[in-house]
Amino acid sequence: MKFGVIGVSQKVIGLGLPRTGTTSISKALEILGYSGSHFCILQNKEMNYFAPSSKKAFVVDNSYYKNYRKLFEENRRTSDPKYVLTTRKKEDWLVSIGRFNREEWLQSNGRFDILDLPDINEYETEVQDFFRQRNGKLLRLNLFEEKNPWETFCNFLAEPVPKAVFPHERPT
Question: Which residue in 11, 24, 91, 154 has a CA-CA distance of 20 to 30 Å to 84?
Answer without folding.
Answer: 91
